[in-house]
Design goal:
- The complex is a heterodimer.
- Chain A contains 23 helices and 26 strands.
- By secondary structure, chain B is mainly alpha-helical.
- Chain B has 15 helices and twelve strands.
- In chain B, the strands form five sheets. A three-stranded mixed beta sheet of chain B has the order 8-1-9. A two-stranded antiparallel sheet of chain B has the order 2-3.
- Classes of the chains: A alpha/beta, B mainly alpha.
- The interface between A and B is large, with 53 and 46 residues.
- Strand 10 of chain A pairs parallel with strand 10 of chain B, so a sheet runs across the interface.
- Chain B: Pfam families: Fer4_11 (PF13247).
- Chain B: It comes from Ancylomarina euxinus.
């Protein structure tokens, strides 16, 4: 038996360090890795589920080709690569390299993903996507305001005396964060949650502000007005560090408690009480989630929230920070998020980009050249990007599709050729985290199963077949050996003498640039060098008000129920939901509905209903949930449409106000009895 | 005294299920047959009640009812660790431990036809490691150690406390979380009665469709014992062939109820502790001795058989003592001892005994139904009427038409007894952590 240090490379806050138990070349257990101070007790249920995921009989282990009857048949790597090579050559010769869409998403993080980009550059470019499905509106809001996205180390949270958790549900999405919250509470901290839903996280709170979804900005501005009115602001901090406070003070005047109470549907007394807490209890850590910025008004909403941390001086102190995203461990990136999401920031060969939020629509509309071939890796756009039906139509409009996958996902079923993807145990790679500050090695612990080849090897073989320049290949694409992969990774480490592959193999490491409490020096890399409540750039870049403001969501007439699709503890986006260990707890998708909304339509608990809007329809079982606001329904993110209901059957391709994010929650639906 | 214990902190658990998965991976349990379960209080999230979880497996109780009641001696306690160990090779799959344990720890596996349960990860803890569930908990909500555990650790609302000294410390929800404070000006009051209508119906662990063989078996015991007693006192004939046929059928009925039929002999290994062992042993002895009595025509053997018969009736009623009934009464009109007295009274044609037993059974029955009605539970009035008729019609006939054929009377009485006994199973259940937690008022 071997116990090997590794880390979970999923698109998740926690990025747990783990120890992988390997017996006879089989993963038999996942154990905690105590050296990671943010995840000392080990991973969540998904981390444990790797034992099944790695050994699943459903895993794709050989190249597959779709036959005329729609079924898939095993083919040889030679046949698969020859077919793909012919298609690539044909596309490039006849329509130019931009007739190929290269689509990659966040299925597996790591520096080796850069090899994919290098290949497509060498190919002469390809059409790619800009923007991001997850968090850019919030990132951009924080970047415009403070210049960078970083926050105190996760374990610093226990020093807070007031924790405001706004639209985040760490109990399901960042489970280890509940530990410092509990520690802070044991020491007497107040814990407030603001969320349209009652969640497992809000159960731990002293109070839950169940605001109307999409109105968070109004609440923040109302709180700011109370705080300013009662002179609970940090005058010294504002005078030294803040640009635009006077204008902001003017802006919030309109947001009286009476008006805010009407908009957000919480009582005036409770708003005044919350303002007093935020204004008078120090230090405060404000933890906004990513869900709240997945509305059309998400960027402005985030700016309004951040203003509360700014005017009370809760930045850059022990127990006080704006706890949104901590990009400190992304030390190898030349260009950090969110700027790396913006079109035109990359290599000229990728200048032709389409919006990730509007993938279906843009793919259908793009001309000169049209998209003839689609390559998908590390992603499941048919489940995860908005407007599934448009994406499916666009995929079927293309002539040829390749999907690199471990399982038969919604997207894999669209492929002409499926290439078996590596899992996290089959190739080493270096990963960062957007919550904890560690640089980590996701370590190879066993040889790839079946005929699985890592993407780096697939690209290596394709590059050779396409006759690309040998010198360029050896410079850009590592040879398919473990030594070559390590050498590739070591090249990144050269600039960081404190980080070595040998140390990373033992456990998580901190880069020298790590700050336990960032912004403690009050240096903000904005244009003015100050925290910009008033941001000129917000206006010039995005055309929004230079000041934070509440922008109401559009009035709805056709469909009365607002669908929110938060993440569940059982999946990371569309991963893990197919595993038996997970399915025993969530065998199918459920639509959570307030009983009074259901009863109005004569619908009983656990009854199947039709869920529909102008974008799609599906049948789904209703589950009663008294923890919802009436008028909100919930279908958790990441279900596969091949199994029935999935949220993106109902979402529209729409970007957020700033940052090229995706406004998933701007979605309204209706239900009816079957 | 310190002992190995689980420590569960209600303030830290968020119901993530990692402990359940960690256990199932370590112990390679079948899917859906989890040794550890996480139960949720107020899953539907009624605004005036907190939502919290208990993660429970076997609590390795000091007074372990599974071990005490197992007829086949399939449970032992590991001296070093205190773990209650279930031995697959000794288990007959009678499922009696699943009734005896209030924590729902023993699980019947339909594919192996025997019980399995948490073993405290005895190999791991002997090696100084933590149990797999504890290792898997990402929040430290479930931990393990040498602890001083006392009654106070088990007084948390929603936790089954039966005084059997479970090896678990339960840290209750902090006062500030006991009543949620939720701000929402659109909230509508939902009263608890309405709430009850929203909740999915919980399955009863004892259901009539599964237990009908037990209805017939227990009534067969009552019938045979009363018949033998009447025969002993010269009130009725008992030919060998019909007696043998009914005996074989009764044994066949019990065997239907156990997973490992070839190990049936193990049923009688725990005469010291298990009423089920006593029941099977005394009933078997009763059958054997009665057979001998018929063949040898020896009265003394007949008396011995009767003693075993009466003891088997007491044992049957004792077997069911820890079921939870919907009525609060100590006696149930469907108890087999009462059925046996009723049948004997009629066969022996003792008017005084008939009057006494009919009155007793009828009052117990009506008393119970009244109690169900008061609790607004379904009490099946039509069935009740039929049941009472099956008691009073023979009683009336006894006076109006004393010459009526005994066979007809017994048939009518038996119909009533089947109804009463069936209702006994229908109205009984086993306490489980899930039910205890479902809703607290």
């Amino acid at each position: 038996m071997k116990l090997i240090s590794s880390a979970c490379p999923r698109n998740c806050y926690s990025t747990c360090s783990i120890k992988v138990r390997v017996e006879n070349n089989i993963v038999t257990g996942i154990e905690p890795h105590t050296e990671n101070l943010a995840t000392p007790e080990g991973p969540c249920i998904k981390g444990l589920a790797y034992v099944e995921r790695a050994n699943s009989k459903d895993r794709i282990l050989y190249p597959q080709k779709r036959m005329a009857d729609g079924k898939y048949k095993r083919i040889s790597w030679d046949e698969a690569l020859d077919t793909i090579t012919d298609q690539l050559k044909n596309c490039k010769d006849k329509f130019g390299p931009h007739s190929v869409l290269y689509f990659a998403s966040s299925g597996m993080s790591g520096l080796l993903n850069g090899v994919s980009t290098s290949f497509w550059k060498m190919f002469g470019g390809a059409t790619t996507t800009y923007g991001n499905l997850c968090w850019p509106a919030g990132l951009e809001a924080a970047r415009l305001t403070m210049g960078a996205n970083k926050h105190n180390a996760p374990w610093d949270l226990e020093h807070a005396k007031l924790i405001v958790l706004w639209g985040k549900n760490p109990a399901e999405t960042n489970i280890q964060e509940m530990m410092p919250i509990e520690k802070a509470q044991e020491k007497g901290a107040q814990f407030v949650v603001i969320d349209p839903r009652r969640t497992p996280s809000s159960e731990r709170a002293n109070s839950l502000f169940q605001v109307k979804s999409g109105t968070d900005a109004a609440l923040a501005l109302g709180l700011a007005r109370e705080i300013i009115k009662n002179d609970w602001i940090d005058h010294d901090f504002i005078a030294k560090n803040v640009l635009g406070f006077e204008q902001f003070k003017e802006r919030v005047k309109a947001y009286t408690t009476e008006k805010v109470s009407q908009i957000c549907r919480v009582s005036e007394a409770s708003i005044r009480d919350l303002a007093k807490q935020i204004g008078t209890i120090k230090p405060m850590t404000l933890i906004p989630g990513y869900g709240m910025q997945r509305y059309e008004n998400g960027g402005q909403t985030t700016r309004c929230l951040l203003a509360l941390s700014v005017i009370t001086g809760n930045i850059g102190k022990q127990g006080a920070c704006w706890h949104y995203a901590n990009l400190q461990s992304y030390v190898f990136d030349d260009l950090k998020e969110p700027e790396s999401y913006f079109p035109g920031c990359e290599h000229p060969s990728f200048r032709r980009k389409i919006s990730v939020a509007k993938l279906g629509e843009d793919l259908l509309n793009i001309v000169d050249p049209e998209i003839k071939m689609i390559w998908v890796e590390r992603g499941n756009p048919l489940a995860q990007n908005p407007d599934t039906l448009a994406i499916r139509k666009a995929f079927r409009k293309a002539d040829f599709r390749v999907v690199v996958e471990q399982f038969m996902t919604d997207t894999a079923y669209e492929a002409d050729i499926i290439l078996p993807a590596k899992n996290m145990f089959e190739q080493s790679d270096i990963i960062g985290s957007y919550w904890n500050p560690y640089v980590q090695l996701k370590q190879k612990v066993l040889e790839p199963a079946g005929e699985v080849k890592p993407e780096t090897e697939i690209y290596y073989l394709l590059a050779k077949r396409l006759g690309m320049d040998e010198a360029e290949i050896s410079k850009q694409i590592p040879e398919p050996t473990d030594q070559a992969i390590e050498k590739y990774l070591e090249a990144f480490l050269d600039k960081f003498p404190e980080l070595s592959l040998a140390d990373l193999k033992k456990g998580p490491q901190l880069a020298n640039s790590f700050e336990e409490i960032p912004f403690a020096d009050h240096k903000f890399p904005t244009a003015s060098g100050k925290i910009e409540l008033y941001s000129e750039q917000a206006n010039t870049l995005w055309g929004i008000d230079p000041l934070p403001d509440y922008v109401p969501l559009p009035e709805q007439k056709d469909f009365p129920l607002q669908l929110i699709s938060p993440n569940s503890k059982n999946r990371i986006h569309s991963q893990f939901g197919n595993l038996e260990v997970i399915k025993q707890f969530e065998p199918e998708a459920y639509l959570f509905v307030h009983p009074l909304d259901a009863e109005a339509k004569g619908i009983a608990n656990m009854e199947p209903v039709e869920l529909y809007n102008h974008k799609g329809r599906a049948e789904v079982k209703v589950q009663f949930d008294l923890g919802l606001r009436q008028g909100n329904v919930v279908l958790t993110n990441g279900h596969w449409a091949i199994n029935g209901a999935a949220p993106n059957l109902f979402t529209e391709g729409r970007e957020t106000d700033i940052g090229h994010g995706t406004a998933f929650h701007n979605t309204w639906v209706d239900i009816k009895k079957l | 005294m310190k002992k190995n214990s689980f420590i569960f902190n209600t303030n830290k658990c968020v119901g993530c299920m990692a402990c359940v998965a960690g256990c199932s991976i370590e112990n390679s349990t079948s899917l859906g047959l989890n040794w550890r379960e996480v139960n949720c209080h107020n899953k539907i999230k009624h605004p005036s009640l907190p939502v919290f979880h208990f993660s429970l497996a076997c609590n390795h109780c000091e007074d372990a009812p599974c071990m005490k009641n197992c007829p086949a001696l399939a449970y032992t306690r590991d001296k070093e660790t205190g773990a209650i160990i279930h031995h697959a090779e000794a288990c007959i799959g009678c499922k009696y431990c699943t009734w005896a344990c209030p924590y729902d720890a023993p699980k019947f596996n339909p594919s192996t036809k025997i019980i399995e349960k948490c073993n405290f990860c005895v190999d791991r803890i002997s090696d100084g490691k933590r149990p797999a569930c504890v290792e898997a908990c990402p929040l430290g909500a479930l931990s393990f150690g040498q602890e001083e555990v006392n009654e106070e650790n088990h007084l948390t609302p929603g936790f089954v406390n039966r005084g059997i000294k479970p090896s678990i410390q339960l840290i209750p929800l902090r006062e500030e979380h006991a009543k949620p404070q939720i701000e929402n000006t659109d909230a509508v009051e939902i009263d608890i009665e309405k709430l009850e209508s929203y909740l999915p119906k919980l399955k009863s662990k004892i259901a009539l469709d599964k237990e009908w063989t037990l209805v017939l078996f227990t009534l067969a015991v009552a019938g045979l014992v009363s018949w033998q007693t009447a025969f002993l006192f010269g009130k009725m004939e008992m030919p060998l062939i019909p007696f043998a046929i009914i005996s074989v059928l009764a044994i066949a009925l019990t065997s239907l109820h156990i997973g490992k039929k070839l190990r049936m002999w193990r049923f009688i290994l725990n005469l010291k502790g298990s009423w089920l062992s006593r029941e099977i042993f005394s009933f078997s002895a009763f059958l054997g001795l009665t057979g001998l009595q018929i063949i040898s025509e020896n009265q003394m053997i007949g008396y011995a058989a009767m003693v075993f018969g009466i003891f088997s009736l007491i044992s049957v009623d004792q077997v069911y003592k820890f079921l939870k009934r919907k009525d609060p009464l100590p006696l149930h009109s469907g108890m087999v001892s009462l059925t046996a007295i009723l049948l004997f009274a009629w066969i022996a044609d003792s008017t005084l005994l008939i009057e006494l037993i009919v009155l007793t059974k009828a009052s117990l029955y009506v008393w119970r139904k009244q109690s169900l009605r008061k609790q607004k539970l379904s009490y099946l009035p039509w069935v009740s009427a039929l049941r009472l008729l099956a008691l009073f019609v023979p009683f009336a006939l006894h006076y109006i038409h004393p010459q009526l054929d005994l066979g007809i009377v017994i048939a009518i009485l038996f119909l009533g007894e089947i109804i009463d006994r069936s209702e006994f199973y229908h109205e009984s259940d086993i306490i489980t952590p899930e039910k205890e937690l479902r809703i607290i008022n």
